[in-house]
Design goal:
This protein has about 300 residues and is mostly helical. The chain has a domain of about 160 residues: MetI-like fold (Orthogonal Bundle). The chain contains eleven helices and two strands. It has a two-stranded antiparallel ribbon. A hairpin with a 2-residue loop joins strand 1 and strand 2. About 35% of the residues are buried. The N terminus is likely disordered.
Length: about 300
């Protein structure tokens, strides 16, 4: 039996050969480490996605069934309980007149999500129509529409929303319209790029060559195969719309107090930061959680559309 010697960190025989047992062990260990790292990445990816879905579903539950998640009255409080810190009795603490902040967050989800969904719906429909017409027709129509889109994209969305809601007036619906119009350009740009890509596909050319009518090709072949990236954009813009709606509500353009709305809840607590930090921090964390969850879901949908 030949003696073993060490070359660096690698055991070898006196003839300079690596023992057979080590040759078999090292690849197995390397494969095991690779599989473990890959499995951890997949687990973390889908764990975060599952958590994001849970957050969004929970907030939708708040909006649809607020009394199930918070049975108290969001408009009346107990003055003796004002400025109570978060506890088992009041999860998010109480405000300056003794109202339960958690109850107001739950009941405020309805207005906030309604405005957000309306804004995204307006942007999705209008942007899809503009992008579809621009990409499919081309020529002077495409040039004019895209210049309008470029102008809209050059203006910060929140500033444009603020200008529009100032012209439209106060109220949740007007806030939703202003935010939706400000987001139209993003949907139009993405839709146009997808339509231009699909227009050059072989099956679209074959449909035209076989005599299929233009509207049929436009709806059945072009639009049908262009919507996936637009849907993923809608999920991302959902989170951005929540931020915009909450910002306008914070500035006083939303629902009339004391009706709870996420942005107005933060505005109510800004004067009491020194004594009741939870009045602004906890509703703000709810908004952050929903925005990040919507962004994660949109990112996953975008990955799926490119696979």
């Amino acid at each position: 039996m030949s003696d073993l010697i060490l070359v660096g960190n690698q055991p070898t025989t006196s003839a300079g050969e690596i023992p057979d047992s080590d040759l078999a062990a090292r690849p197995a260990a390397a494969v095991g480490q690779h599989v473990a790292r890959f499995g951890l990445r997949v687990l973390l990816r889908y764990a975060v996605l599952a958590l994001s879905l849970l957050v969004v579903l929970l907030v939708i539950g708040f909006a649809l069934f607020p009394s199930v998640f918070a049975g108290g009255d969001p408009l009346t409080g107990v003055p003796a309980d004002k400025f109570e810190a978060p506890s088992a009795q009041h999860w998010f603490g109480t405000d300056n007149i003794g109202r339960d902040v958690y109850t107001r967050v739950v009941h405020g989800a309805g207005l906030s999500l309604t405005a957000t969904l309306l804004a995204v719906g307006i942007a999705l429909i209008a942007g899809t129509v503009i992008g579809l017409v621009s990409g499919a027709v081309g020529g002077i129509v495409d040039a004019v529409l895209m210049r309008v889109v470029d102008v809209l994209l050059s203006i910060p969305a929140l500033l444009l929303s603020l200008a529009l809601v100032t012209a439209l007036g106060f109220g949740t619906v007007n806030v939703a319209i202003a935010v939706g119009v400000a987001m139209v350009a993003s949907f139009a740009r993405v839709t146009r790029s997808e339509v231009l890509r699909v227009r050059r596909a072989t099956y679209v050319e074959a449909a035209f060559a076989s005599g299929v009518r233009w509207p049929t090709v436009l709806l059945r072949h072009i639009l049908r195969n262009s919507y996936a990236p637009v849907i993923s954009l809608a999920a991302v813009e959902f989170g951005m719309a929540i931020l915009a709606v909450s910002a306008l509500s914070f500035l006083g353009f939303g629902a009339v107090p004391p009706t709870p709305e996420w942005g107005s809840l933060i505005a109510e607590g800004r004067n009491y930061l020194a004594v009741a930090w939870w009045m602004t921090t906890l509703p703000g964390l709810v908004i952050i959680a929903v925005v990040l969850s919507a962004h994660r879901i949109g990112h996953q949908l975008d990955r799926g559309s490119h696979q």
